[in-house]
Design brief:
The complex is a heterodimer. By secondary structure, chain A is mainly α. Chain A has a domain of 131 residues. Chain A has 7 helices and 1 strand. In chain A, helix 1 runs antiparallel to helix 3, helix 3 crosses helix 7 and helix 4 packs across helix 5. By secondary structure, chain B is mainly alpha-helical. Chain B has a domain of 35 residues. Chain B is elongated and about 50 Å long. In chain B, 38% of the residues are buried. The mean pLDDT of chain B is 88. Classes of the chains: A mainly alpha, B mainly alpha. At the A-B interface, helix 1, helix 3, helix 4, helix 5 and helix 7 of A face strand 1, helix 1 and helix 4 of B. Strand 1 of chain A pairs antiparallel with strand 1 of chain B, so a sheet runs across the interface.
Chain lengths: 241, 71
C-alpha cells in the first residue's frame, strides 16, 4: 500500500464515521439541544437580559438554523480529526493488536480508544447541554478535559506496552496499573466548576444520547478502516507464530 | 505438544510523511470543532471574529454533543 493510499483510506474512514456521528446526533441529540436552549431563552426573558419579541425569535431562528446545519458538517470534520489519530495509532500498532484479521484488530483498537479517550474522561467530565456551562470557565474546563484525555491516552499506551513484556496472568497487572492511574487522576483532578441548574432528567437524557452519538463514531471507524485496509494492503498475509 | 498459530501480519510501514499529514489534520480538526472561539477567522477579520464566533456557532451543537466544554 502506498503512503498516499494509506492517508486517503484513513481520511475517508474518519470522514464516513464522522458522517454517521453527525447524522445520529442530528436525529437523537438535537431535540435535547432544542429543549435546553428553550430553557436558556426562558431564563434570559426572566432575568430581563432579552425580551420575548419577534426580533428576538427572528435572530434566534437564524443562528439556530446555522448551528443545526453545522451538526453533520462538524461531525465530518471531527471524524477526519479523530479518524486521523485512529489511523496513525492503527498503522503503527496493528501487528501487535489482538485479532484474527485486520478488521477485528481495527475494531479492537477502536473499542480501546473509545474506552480510554472518550468513556473514561466522560465519567469525570460528562457532556452538558447548552444551559449548563459558564462562558468564564470554558478555558479552564477545556484544559481539565484535555488533560484528563491525555493522562488516559498516555496511560493506556504505557500500560499496554508493559503488558506486552509480561507473561500469562502477570499481564493483568498492567490493567490494574492503568485502573490505578485513572483512579488517582479521577480523585486528584478538580471537578467541573460549573453548577448544574438545568433539570437533571434533561441533563442525564442528553448525556445518554451524547454517548450513543460518540459511540456510533468509534463503532464505525474501526470497521470502515479495517475493511479498507483489508482491500488495499496487499502486504498482509498469514504467518505462523 | 507445541501449537502452531497463524496470525495476520502486515508489512506496510507507515511513513513519517503520513504521520505528519494526519497529525496536522487531527490537530486542526480538533481545534475547529472543539476549541475555536473566533481564533481562526480572526486571522482575516481581526477582533470582530471573536464577537461573531462563526465557527463556534457552526460547531456548537456537535461541541455539546461530543462532550467538549462550551458556554
Amino acid at each position: 500500500m502506498k503512503t498516499l493510499v494509506f492517508i486517503v483510506i484513513v481520511l475517508i474512514s474518519g470522514g464516513l464515521a464522522g458522517l454517521v456521528h453527525g447524522t445520529v446526533n442530528f436525529a437523537i441529540v438535537e431535540p435535547y439541544l432544542d429543549q435546553a436552549i428553550g430553557l436558556e431563552n426562558e431564563s434570559l426573558f426572566a432575568s430581563g437580559e432579552a425580551e420575548d419579541t419577534l426580533e428576538f425569535w427572528a435572530e434566534y431562528e437564524s443562528y439556530r438554523i446555522w448551528q443545526k446545519s453545522g451538526q453533520v458538517l462538524a461531525g465530518v470534520i471531527l471524524g477526519l480529526a479523530m479518524g486521523s489519530l485512529f489511523g496513525i495509532v492503527f498503522g503503527l500498532s496493528r501487528n501487535s493488536l489482538p485479532g484474527k484479521n485486520v478488521v477485528s484488530k481495527a475494531v479492537f483498537l477502536s473499542v480501546l480508544m473509545w474506552f480510554t479517550l472518550y468513556l473514561i474522561p466522560f465519567l469525570k467530565y460528562p457532556a452538558n447541554p447548552p444551559t449548563v456551562g459558564d462562558g468564564e470557565t470554558v478555558v479552564l474546563r477545556a484544559i481539565l478535559y484535555v488533560s484528563f484525555i491525555i493522562i488516559s491516552g498516555i496511560g493506556v499506551v504505557i500500560f499496554y506496552k508493559l503488558s506486552k513484556k509480561l507473561n500469562g496472568n502477570k499481564r493483568y497487572l498492567s490493567l490494574v496499573g492503568y485502573a490505578g492511574l485513572m483512579v488517582v487522576a479521577f480523585i486528584a483532578m478538580p471537578d467541573n466548576p460549573d453548577e448544574i441548574t438545568a433539570p437533571m432528567n434533561l441533563v442525564n437524557e442528553f448525556r445518554f444520547v451524547s454517548v450513543l452519538g460518540v459511540s456510533s463514531f468509534w463503532g464505525s471507524v474501526g470497521i470502515i478502516l479495517g475493511l479498507f485496509w483489508k482491500k488495499f494492503d496487499k502486504t498482509s498475509n498469514l504467518e505462523d507464530s | 505438544m507445541s501449537e502452531v498459530r497463524q496470525i495476520n501480519k502486515s508489512k506496510f510501514a507507515v511513513s513519517k510523511v503520513a504521520i505528519l499529514a494526519l497529525a496536522i489534520v487531527f490537530a486542526a480538526g480538533l481545534f475547529v470543532v472543539g476549541f475555536d472561539q473566533g481564533h481562526i477567522f480572526s486571522i482575516v477579520y481581526g477582533e470582530q471574529a471573536f464577537v461573531d464566533l462563526t465557527i463556534h456557532e457552526l460547531t456548537h451543537d456537535m461541541r455539546h454533543a461530543a462532550g467538549f466544554p462550551c458556554h
